[in-house]
Amino acid sequence: IPIPGVSYTAVQTCLKAAESNQLLSLVNLFSGGALLKLSIFALGIMPYITSSIILQLLVVVIPRLELLKEEGQSGQAKITQYTRYVTIGLALLQGTSILTLARTPGRLIQGCNEDLIPSDDIFLFVVMIVTLTAGTALIMWLGELVTGKGVGNGMSILIFTSIIATTPGQMYNIGISQGAWTLTGVVAVGI
């Protein structure tokens, strides 16, 4: 589902141009293909992972956070709450950055001069940022829900799912572009 205000046809045109860019393909892999499509879940779980890493590093540096960690379950719950707040802040920052790049043709997806966001309305831009942030918050909630049900680490399962969702298409693209159907078949069987 594309975020409101994005030209879907322009995005599809740019995706064809971006197929050869391996860096964009790698970044897009972790969002399950949602980043380059500018969908609601374009940011994926990456803001949560980044905020978790930031807080783990801050626990070592800030004595108050270290005391919270040593308190046990209640302290860990407080650190988890801080992680959620930092996640929302990072999602707002990353969403603004991505949309700012997408507003200028050729900046988000190199070699594509399509106008991905045709409107310059500031209200629409804010709605787009809030939509991306809400998508990240929903994914974060789903990950915590999976963890709470005891299935496993919900965030890891979501990352695994987003990567696996794009694997068949990537394998097909490798087979077509490289002509390496035998190698593609061996890798597919190994997975």
**Number of helical elements:** 8
Q: Give the terminus-to-terminus CA distance.
A: 29 Å
Approximately how much helix is present in the residues?
over 70%
The SSE string, one letter per element, is HHHHHHHH
The chain-level mean pLDDT equals: 79
> Over the alpha carbons, how many angstroms does the gyration radius reach?
19 Å
How large is the share of residues in beta strands?
A: under 5%
Low-confidence residue ranges = none
User: Rough shape?
Assistant: globular
- Largest sheet at a glance? none
User: What structural category do the secondary elements indicate?
Assistant: mainly alpha
Give the tally of β-strands.
Answer: 0
How would you describe this protein?
Helix 3 (about 45-60) crosses helix 4 (about 65-70), helix 3 packs across helix 5 (about 75-105) and helix 4 crosses helix 5 (about 75-105). With about 190 residues, this protein is mainly α. The longest helix has about 30 residues, at about 75-105. About 70% of the residues lie in helices and about 0% in strands. It has helices at about 10-20, 20-30, 45-60, 65-70, 75-105, 120-150, 155-180, 180-190.
